[in-house]
Design goal:
GO terms for molecular function: carbohydrate binding; glycosyltransferase activity; hydrolase activity, hydrolyzing O-glycosyl compounds. With about 800 residues, the protein is an alpha+beta fold. It has a domain at about 5-315: Glycoside hydrolase, family 65, N-terminal domain (Beta-galactosidase, Chain A, domain 5). Helices cover about 30% and strands about 25% of the residues. β28 and β29 form a beta hairpin. The radius of gyration is 27 Å and the shape is globular.
């Protein structure tokens, strides 16, 4: 059963090229790390970077399992670089087929965004000039998140060769930590630069071996004690001349030998099962579950099942730009990476700043999920959105410990978190020269979590969640704000904080933080009173668990009324924090090739404190999150003022500027900001894609299209659309999930079309302010409104 005849040699063909594919043509070692990131395959439970199966000098391979962290010998906790399931080496007549040993005659790789399959074709020249082709396909199954697949075919093109193909599970993995301190300007070429890093070890082997034709290896994280089991089954394709299985420390491998004739492909299909002791809702051991996942080596059947799930995901999630193929591809690329970053079946994990595509930020979770990524999942994959919020409840104990460590009550979410909910932000930069005050002062993340909870309940109508896990978080975090705020006469203030603009630390009364804290408290009061009326038994349980009473709620309401915050709808220009307007004005005078602002001469991230320069503007973020709370005049004034002082040194900033600019009628830079967000990784326009995806930018790209150019908003008054598409775009098409129903939008310059999917009562939406009634299954056309 583990040998196939050459009749079943075809590799799966990619989808229509261009529209759904990202391609690497030719081998360029200086671009290899970039492609490793953008070619990541995954399924929300794991992500595997797009490294060559055989490796190469300077490669940064990695497989990352959501929620598997360890801090054995690293300064702060790491998302563990887990065992490698791809490692495969081919010898032809004793010559190793790799890009460093032999000449590469042809090389192409294609990532099929529609199916999540990475295809490869490389032709090597042996020493005598004879050519040998290596073709592979790999994917992480969306149908069975415990399972990965690799198909390898090797074809001599000019003459017969003796082939030896070894494929293995390699558990000898390390995480990169930091570079030694070198003189300024020191650089290393692609072959050496990663070798200079210090390494951390997070895995120890617990067992390995073969049971029949299944090879397995079990490891355990050294500090966090997570057991990780891998199992593999290899099905040979072609006439074997030899076969052997070997094991050694941290490795199990299988070798297939062939006498391959010219034009005849041989190789194998490999299935790998992966399971851990932290997986939710399971009973059998990781080793048993990993082995069970390898029962069938049928690559094609497994691919068909995975493709079926992908088809459902794209049906719900695709956002299509018609008329601009390059923008359309960038948007699909962004959605693809979002879909492989979330696991709707696991409410104990979240999405790190680099998703599961690299070691950047050590896999830590920031506020990016709640503010940038959650909207995408809310409106396309609400079950995944619910799971992501589940992580914050799962780590609530850690948030309570973070508050207690600082001498406060209640719960405070850390700036960077991992598996426990404790603070994982480094204290200093790797060179020790600069202090990270984000861990101490960027408190707004706690209010951001509250914001996400309430948005989820509003969009989905899931009051059971709101009055359960959501309420517990809202109430306990409100207790933190009560103890953290300071009375100043008849008002309350927040001292020594940092807003989203991380250029300025130790500031008082940050407008964004204070207003979001006020909003947070207001929502907690509202939910408490609703539960008192409609869910008294559940409220009683929470009151007992959290030791709160009606008097606490009155304190929340009083604090919300007294805290210094910009709430007047005609407040005008908002001062970002106390004394901001007195800071030194430093004009921005230099822009890069993407027309993005650069640091003025002599300035960098850590010396802008005394200036009005911004990493990203807090006031504009406030206009984005609470657009209904401020008049159009206030929103426009703040956008214009702060946009001129912003350096966009956060990848979150451009998309927010595009959206708010469009909302206030300033579209002059919207396309530029969209491009900065959409192509940050596809074009590597920040030069650091090799470290992992800017996954918040991917979500921001979707938001620019849907909330920006399509003018979509969802709130207490329902759904509204005010499209204003770029001239180069013909149409934008997307679907919105709203309280258990789906609305399809097809928007253009002349006519807009809407369809309410499914059965039930009609739904009223608004298009450019006019009410439109949608009847299930009936497409409604609305004439577009001319925009200036």
């Amino acid at each position: 059963m583990d040998v196939q005849s050459p009749e079943s040699l075809e590799l799966a063909a990619p989808a229509q090229r261009g529209a759904w594919t990202v391609t690497e043509s030719g081998w360029d070692p200086t671009r290899a790390n970039y492609f490793e990131t953008v070619f990541t395959v995954g399924n929300g439970r794991l992500g595997t970077r797009g490294s060559l199966e055989e490796g190469h000098l300077g490669d940064v391979s990695g497989t990352f399992l959501a929620g598997v962290y360890d801090a054995h010998d690293s300064p702060v906790i790491d998302l563990v670089n887990a065992p490698d399931w791809l490692n495969t080496v081919v010898y032809a007549d004793s010559e190793r087929l790799d890009v460093d040993t032999l000449d590469v005659v042809e090389h192409e790789r294609v990532l099929d965004l529609k199916t999540g399959v990475l295809h490869r074709r490389t032709v090597f020249a042996l020493g005598d000039g004879a050519r040998v082709e290596v073709a592979t396909a790999r994917f992480a199954s969306m149908a069975d998140r415990n399972q990965c697949r690799l198909r390898v075919r090797v074809t001599p093109l000019d003459r017969a060769v003796d082939l030896s193909i070894t494929t293995r599970i390699d558990a000898h993995r390390r995480n990169m930590e930091s570079l030694p301190i070198y003189p300024e300007g020191t650089t290393f070429d692609y072959e050496r630069k990663w070798d200079k890093w210090s390494l951390s070890r997070h895995l120890r082997e617990k067992g390995r071996g073969f049971t029949g034709d299944v090879g397995s290896i079990v490891t355990q994280t050294i500090d966090s004690d997570v057991e990780i089991a891998y199992a593999m089954r290899v099905c040979a394709v072609g006439d074997l001349t030899g076969r052997s299985r070997k094991q050694r420390h941290e490795r199990v491998e299988e070798t297939l030998e062939f006498r391959a004739e010219p034009g005849v492909a041989v190789g194998f299909d490999k299935v790998v099962g992966i399971a851990t002791s932290r997986d939710v809702g399971v009973e059998r051991s990781p080793a048993q579950r990993a082995s069970a996942a390898t029962e069938s080596a049928d690559f094609d059947a497994a691919l068909a099942k995975s493709e079926a799930v992908w088809a459902q995901l794209w049906e719900s999630s695709e956002c299509e730009i018609v008329g601009d193929d390059r923008a359309a591809l960038a948007l699909r690329f962004s959605v693809y990476h979002l879909l492989i970053a979330a696991n709707p079946d696991d409410p104990t994990v979240n999405i790190g700043a680099k998703s599961l595509s690299g070691e950047g930020y050590r896999g830590h979770v920031f506020w990016d999920t709640e503010i940038m990524m959650l909207p995408f999942f809310l409106f396309t994959q609400p079950r995944a959105a619910r799971a992501l919020l589940g992580y914050r409840h799962h780590t609530l104990r850690g948030a309570r410990e973070v508050a207690a460590d600082s001498g406060f009550r209640g719960a405070r979410y850390p700036w960077e978190s991992a598996d426990t909910g404790r603070e994982e932000c480094p204290v200093t930069t790797p060179d020790g020269k600069n202090r990270f005050y984000t861990r101490d002062e960027e408190l707004h993340v706690t209010a951001d979590v509250a914001y996400a909870i309430c948005r989820y309940a509003e969009v989905t109508g899931d009051v059971d969640y709101l009055y359960g896990e959501g309420a517990e978080i809202l109430f306990d975090t409100s207790q933190f704000w009560v103890s953290r705020c300071v009375d100043d006469g008849d008002r309350a203030v927040l001292l020594t904080v940092m807003g989203p603009d991380e250029f300025h630390s130790h500031i008082d009364n940050n407008a964004f933080t204070n207003r979001m804290v006020q909003w947070h408290l207001e929502q907690a009061v509202r939910v408490y009173r609703e539960m008192a009326e409609h869910r008294p038994d559940e409220l009683a349980r929470l009151r007992d668990a959290l030791s709160i009473s009606d008097s606490d709620v009155e304190v929340w309401a009083d604090l919300a009324a007294r805290i210094v915050a910009p709430v007047d709808p005609d407040v005008g220009l908002i001062e970002q924090f106390d004394g901001y307007f007195e800071r030194l004005e430093v004009p921005i005078t230099v822009w890069d090739e993407n027309d993005m602002p650069q640091y003025p001469a002599g300035y960098h991230h850590f010396n802008c404190e005394d200036t009005t320069l911004l990493k990203q503007p807090d006031a504009v973020m406030l206009m984005f999150m609470l657009p209904d709370d401020y008049s159009m005049e206030t929103r426009r004034a703040n956008y214009d003022f702060y946009e001129a002082r912003t350096l966009h040194k956060s990848s979150l900033s451009p998309s927010i500027h595009a959206i708010v600019g469009l909302q206030v009628g300033n579209s002059s830079k919207a396309e530029q900001y969209f491009a900065r967000s959409a192509f940050v990784d596809l074009d590597d326009n920040q030069g650091n894609t090799e470290e992992g995806m800017h996954i918040a930018s991917a979500a921001g790209t979707w938001q620019v299209v849907v909330h920006g150019f399509a003018g979509f908003l969802a709130g207490v008054d329902g759904l509204s659309f005010a499209p204003a598409l770029p001239e180069s775009w013909e149409r934008v098409k997307f679907s919105i999930h709203w309280r258990g129903r789906v609305v399809k939008a097809d928007l253009g310059h002349d006519v807009n079309r809407f369809t309410l999917v499914g059965d039930g009562e009609p739904e009223e939406i608004h298009v450019h302010g006019a009410a439109v009634v949608l009847t299930p299954g009936v497409e409604v056309e609305v004439e577009a409104v001319a925009t200036v």
